[in-house]
Amino acid sequence: MLLAKVRGTVVSTCKEPSLRGVKFLLVQLLSDTGEPLPDYEVAADVVGAGVNEWVLISRGSGARQHEGYVNRPVDATVVAIVDTVSLASGALYSKREDFS
Fold first, then answer.
1. Is the pTM of this model over 0.85?
2. CATH of domain 2-94
C-alpha cells in the first residue's frame, strides 16, 4: 500500500459498463516524510474519501480484492482514510490537526 493525498475527483460519463457507479479520485503520492511526490494516480474509492484527506491506496491485483471489484478493470483503489501517521521521530500527520 502507498500513502497519498486526495487532490480531486475524476468524472467519466462514458466508460466500461462494469465501472458504472464507481467513484474515482485523483490522488498524489506522498514520500516517507509526507512531502508530495510528482506522481499522481486515479484510484477507485471504496471508503468515501474526500479532497485533501490522506489515504492508503492499493495497486494491481490487490486493488481488486474489495468485494464487487474482482472482475472490474481497476488498477488502484483507495482502501483507507488515514487518521494518523507516526514515525520513530514523532508524529508525521494527524487528520485532526492538519486538514489542509
1. yes
2. 2.40.50.220
